[in-house]
Amino acid sequence: MELYIYLFIISLVLTPVEPLLPEPRYGHSSTLVGTKLYFFGGLGSGSENNSLSTQTFFLDVSKPFRIDNPPWTIVQSPIPVGISQAQSFAGGNSKDQIFLYGGERKNPTNFSLIYDNIIYLFDTRTQSWNIPPIGVVPSLRRKMQIPVDNNGEAYLFGGQDEYNVFKDMNIFDSINLRWSLNISANDFTTPRQRSDYTATLLKN
């Protein structure tokens, strides 16, 4: 009997444990908070109905790792909707909250398309999602960039939805949780409408 117990223990020790791996994807969002690089959603390789991911996971970049086997951590709290082509950015008083805006969205239960413009907030301390009370939010769009300054203000220019390409500039105050229209689409000095661009915020 003891021999069987020893053999069982040895088999447990020698059996390799596969790490949790994120599903293959593209069109996801990512944001660095402290030493953790978070990834959200994306378009996976599943069927047309369920391929929009609700997954959240991160990589601690402060520790050495092999690029062919990164030590991913899967967050147990999923995004409330399946989402891709959205933008995520860090903000809040301590810059440890991540806001997820825009993108293509699907109901994770019945896989129907969602056209709301809700901003979702991920708290990196509690590893949980919620919907903050923000009020008026720019129309839902995707394929845009949202850089953030040191004061916690995020800048949204352009983007597109199913039928339109935009050229307005909206600013989001991530501390006081409110949007403001900085440059109207009717302003003749505004660059032409566009999406799929890049944006970089300089110190000056």
TrEMBL record:
Instruction: State the InterPro entries in the record.
Output: Kelch-typ_b-propeller
List the SUPFAM superfamilies.
Kelch motif
User: Looking at the keywords, is Iron-sulfur present?
Assistant: no
Keywords in alphabetical order:
Kelch repeat, Repeat, Signal
* Signal peptide per UniProt: 1-19
Q: PANTHER family from the entry?
A: ACYL-COA-BINDING DOMAIN-CONTAINING PROTEIN 5 (PTHR46093), FIBRONECTIN TYPE-III DOMAIN-CONTAINING PROTEIN (PTHR46093:SF18)
- This protein's name: Galactose oxidase
